Amino acid sequence: MTSPAKRFDLPTVELETKPYWDAAKEGRLLLRRCASCGRAHAYPRPFCPHCWSEDVPWEQASGRARLYTYSTVFFNDLPPFNERLPYIAAVVDLEEGPRMMTGLVETEGVDLQLGMALEAVFLPLDDTLAAPFFRPALGKDTT
Amino acid sequence: MSRRVALAGVGLADNGKDHGQTPYGMLAQASRRAVAEAGLTPADIDGFGSTALGTLAPIDVAEYMGLRPRWLDSTAVGGSSWEIMAAHAADAISQGRADVILLAYGSTARSDLRNKLRTGSLDWGSRGPMQWEAPYGHSLMSKYAMAARRHMFEYGTTLEQLAEIAVSARFNAAENPQAQERTPITIDDVLSGPMIADPFQKLQCCLRSDGGAAVVLVAEDRVADLPSKPVWVLGSGESSSHVSMSQWEDFTVGPASVSGPLAFQRAGLTPADIDVCQIYDAFTSMLLITLEDLGFCGKGEAGPFVADGRLRLGGALPTNTDGGGLSACHPGQRGLFLLVEAVRQLRGESGPRQVAGAETACVSGTGGWFCSSGTMILGTR
Predict the structure, then answer these.
(1) Residue of chain B nearest A11, judged by CA positions
(2) Is the C-alpha dihedral spanning A19, A20, A21, A25 positive or negative?
(3) Which 3 state secondary structure label does DSSP give B267?
(4) What are phi and psi of B111, to 5 degrees?
(5) Strand B47-49 vs strand B100-108: parallel, antiparallel, or unpaired?
(6) Contact B359, B379 (CB under 8 A)
(7) Chain B residues touching residue A131 (CB < 8 angstroms)
(8) What are the tens digits of pLDDT across the range B190-206?
(9) Residue of A nearest to B139 (CA)
(10) Which of B82, B139, B188, B358 is the most exposed, having the fewest neighbouring CB atoms within 10 Å of its CB?
């Protein structure tokens, strides 16, 4: 019997970040917003990276974002990415301001344009974890 | 105490495909050559810097070479670590904390991959800030590709312009017998190659090489005794940006936009004063964006700036005269190789690839994925 190949796509959930991953499992994207300076930040820290206030309650994000940039990846030899090629790595700007690293899905037949509207979709990583990805928000661009 | 600092000796290992050496061996071979070229002996070395090799860098390699340095550095911020360590070394010598400092690097990245001692893509782990990118497979190449795409979007930079950087590197490599790839290529060759991370084809990405390099820095009081022509450190700067791509505010502006102006200001020079450049080119876009950040052209202008062959030997701004990481040698970290080539150009020892009358050089290393930068201005006077 062979042991399964090591996976490189699973985040190490920490006490500090567990609320984020628990919410993602429920299909919710969390940010933290500083009660002192008012700025939202991501990725979440237990303090505000802008003013260092420790008063940073969690807040649910809308899941709406704009595509900042992306790359379709054709080479990655780390499992499980090596079995998914090609896939799309992306960086998106959330409606609330912060930028996040993610992946694009459900892009078949879509002409990807930087600045286009996206919406979050939550995909399982394994039995216990899910992560937010983004898909084109077709027909929902109200700007 | 404030002393001027010179690069007194440089060396490369037998870089290439069939060297039969370990990374330690390559590092030590380059070091012996650099120290011999400086007319010094191991007993003269009182400071040592190295990184990315060993468990307690730089001590493992110092031990391997039989050194017991009393000044140490092991900056670990990617390929730019070498320009940053050279700056730290120059400061230390200037202030009298050391007289002779050796910086040395060795890597067998190419052989390690072939011998299955490492993976092609790097495992950055999944803890701390890395947990936010682990699910998405943002390979190093895709990070650079994403920045290139943003530059193309904002400024109309074309893949043909980026490809010219690879073509220029190969053009220069033709005059370097030690370069790993010397067969001329065309823009079509680049653009018709296999896609690695869209929009990058294979030839927009650097080589994977084995290699060793070493540099010796000395105090000005030692220069009169040297057999080699000294090359002076005129100014330097360093900076950091991000590791998580989400924390990078503008993907068209790299950290050399901070380290470059600092280095030029401290040297009392401007980009217009520079005769030859050695600028880190792990990807074509890394060089393109860094040229703008350093001020050789305006932001967004580097596409047309490089398209006329300006970076080639004989061009208006000969850059990466040995062929760069795209064609000569890229063994994981290229920073020290930039300094070696700059010194050889300023000594006038570069044979068929010599830039005539070169008196000033701009060396700029980029670490990680535009995470860090170290810029150093060198001169013959």
Answers:
(1) B131
(2) positive
(3) helix
(4) -65, -40
(5) parallel
(6) yes
(7) 135-136
(8) 999 999 999 999 999 99
(9) A76
(10) B188
| Amino acid (1-letter code) at residue B297 | C
Tokens of B179: 């370069």
The verdict on B128 touching A (C-beta cutoff 8 Å) is: yes
Contact A53, A37 (CB under 8 A): yes
Q: Are B9 and B35 in contact (CB under 8 A)?
A: yes
Task: Extract the tokens encoding B147.
Answer: 């920045």
Enter the tokens of residue B199: 């929009």
Residues B280 and B290 sit within 8 Å (Cβ to Cβ):
yes
Give dist(CA B199, CA B100) in Å, integer. 45
Q: With CA atoms as reference, report the closest residue to A20 among A60, A56, A47.
A: A60
Three-state DSSP state, B266: helix
* B78 phi/psi in degrees, rounded to 5: 90, -160
**Cα–Cα dist A87/A73, whole Å:** 5
**CA–CA gap between residue A91 and residue B149 (Å, rounded):** 11
Q: What radius of gyration do chain B's Cα atoms show?
A: 19
Q: Which of B126, B136, B140 to mutate to test the interface with A (most CBs of A within 10 A)?
A: B136
Decide if B197 and A72 are in contact by the 8 Å CB cutoff: yes
Alpha-carbon B35 to chain mean position: 20
CB-CB under 8 Å, A131 with B121: no
Instruction: Using alpha carbons only, give the angle A8, B325, B76 rounded to the nearest 5 degrees.
Output: 55
φ, ψ of residue A55 in degrees (nearest 5): -95, 85
Model pLDDT for residues B234-262, shown as the tens digit of each residue = 999 999 999 999 999 999 999 999 999 99
CATH number of B5-114+206-379: 3.40.47.10
Structure tokens at A45: 């820290």
- A76/B137 CB distance under 8 A: yes
- Residue B129 near chain A (CB below 8 Å): yes
pLDDT at B122: 84
Residue spans of chain B under pLDDT 50: none
Cis before B255 (ω within 30): no
Looking at residue B19, what is its pLDDT?
Answer: 81
Q: How far is B244 from chain A (nearest CA, A)?
A: 8
Instruction: Please give the helix or strand (H or E) that residue B110 lies within, else none.
Output: helix B109-114
pLDDT at A140: 62
Residue spans of the domains in chain B: they are 5-114+206-379
Please give the Cα distance from A103 to A131 (Å, whole number): 10
Among B319, B312, B313, CA closest to B342: B319
CA-atom Rg of chain A in angstroms: 16
